[in-house]
Amino acid sequence: xxxxxxxxxxxxxxxxxxxxxxxxxxxxxxxxxxxxRQFPKQSLMLMATSNEGSxxxxxxxxxxxxxxxxxxxxxxxTLTVTSAHPEDSSFYICSAGGTVKSxxxxxxxxxxxxxxxxL
Amino acid sequence: AQSVTQPDIHITVSEGASLELRCNYSYxxxxxxxxxxxxxGQGLQLLxxxxxxxxxxxxxKGFEAEFKRSQSSFNLRKPSVHWSDAAEYFCAVGRNAGxxxxxxxxxxxxxxxxxHP
Lengths: 119, 117
Prior knowledge:
The complex is a heterodimer of chains A (about 120) and B (about 120). Chain A is mostly beta strands. In chain A, about 0% of the residues lie in helices and about 60% in strands. Chain A has strands at about 5, 10-15, 20-25, 30-40, 45-50, 55-60, 65-75, 75-80, 90-100, 105-110, 115-119. Chain B has strands at about 5, 10-15, 20, 25, 30-40, 45-50, 55-60, 65-70, 75-80, 85-95, 105, 110-115.
């Protein structure tokens, strides 16, 4: 249980285009979603936190107009990288926090990540 | 603000040998502590976590970690390493704020584990 599906796993796009990454909780209600970015050979850095139905809270230094986060339902959050440039190439990972319906347990689960390459 | 330090960037051990990965944290209150493992190009798998209670935590794949408040440490151990354990390991600290707000994690730099046959 407590599975998070993230896709696409890999995406290549041209500079200036926008890319959307989806993060879905499959068997629990994700009241909070977290988006992280991981550059090669580096650790994960939190970009933003979103609660269902509310605006995302961005970490210092993260451009909210460039990284659009939507959390419109308890099972889906999306990250859109707008006007992507080569420096946005990175590994983006979501995590979802919520409650498993069947057990009532609180969970925090990571997606498998999405590797974005901007040419 | 919280921070996490993993002093060892790269560790090499022989298969069957014991393993200890170090993690030190800085946080003003009682932390939520985690260890994750990441294989190349993959997401994160939770090995174990500490919220409260017994300071020796058992996890999956034979891993355990011990929370030592006096040393601000949460070192990961395994008595006998398998070749499949080769991966990158991340220690993380989450805010103790109840609900799932502890999911706002700060990660250490990671430790790459290489296992020799």
